[in-house]
């Protein structure tokens, strides 16, 4: 099950905890992976660890031109582009009343607009192949909200809606578009939350623990597989039960 | 019929799965040949590849019929 031999996958934010785990899972299932991220050194490390079938494709997602070029670079490096995992994301948390236009815009740009641009950029190869998988990593806060993250919640909820629209447009071409919404996962990003935020979130998790990046990667692997062909426009919530939608 | 028209017709026939004699000068991709809006985007992509040209979005919108496509490509190629 979930054999991705011969498939090519581009993963953004592959230098991060969840992105790295996703890249490993897809690679482990046989896919050729393109590792994208802002910081090249950790990508090179990951590529070295994976060995064959791994390509490093650095990209600054707040740079519109670089984002436009990324799908083409991925196709050149890997010979195709069957699977896109939009995982990269940033946070610029602040109380709503104090949130600057800049913090709002940068989070929307990287988390929503770059996802839009990458989805648009991979349409051509996927439409031609009559096969494609897009998995957008959203967040539990897209549905649940979170104080201090008005910008991030808006961006992630935006990705959810956008994914459903795109899913309807391209379903007849064998392309699925889904989201995975992680809950509280132990990564560098969640380390930035303060103790009060962590305590409040942890108390609300029926599973009684934080999730691991590998548990997100498993959900992505499923949605990227041939077996998930009939799943589209869906969000798979992987959150230990903290928000049951 | 010109070489360009032949090549365009071949793409249309293959992509939309229609009979060749249905692809007339005035045949509308959507109204007469059963294309949906996504099909028209794919046709434009196929034309771009076949003829090595770029068809901008605003021009693509004006290509409604087989005749429109042949005319546009003849001028661009």
Describe the structure.
The complex is a heterodimer of chains A (245) and B (77). Chain A is an alpha/beta fold and 245 residues long. Chain A is built from nine helices and seven strands; from the N terminus they run E-H-E-H-E-H-E-H-E-H-H-E-H-H-H-E. Chain A has helices at 17-28, 40-50, 64-78, 101-129, 141-144, 150-170, 188-191, 195-203, 213-224, and strands at 8-11, 32-37, 54-58, 83-86, 132-137, 175-182, 235-238. In chain A, strands 3-2-1-4-5-6-7 form a seven-stranded parallel β-sheet, sandwiched between helices. The model of chain A has no long low-confidence stretch (mean pLDDT 95). Chain B is mostly helical. Chain B has a single domain (1-76), classed as ACP-like (Non-ribosomal Peptide Synthetase Peptidyl Carrier Protein, Chain A, Orthogonal Bundle), CATH 1.10.1200.10. Helices cover 57% and strands 0% of the residues of chain B. Chain B has helices spanning 3-16, 37-51, 57-60, 66-76. Chain B starts with a helix and ends with a helix. The mean pLDDT of chain B is 93. At the A-B interface, helix 4 of A face helix 2 of B.
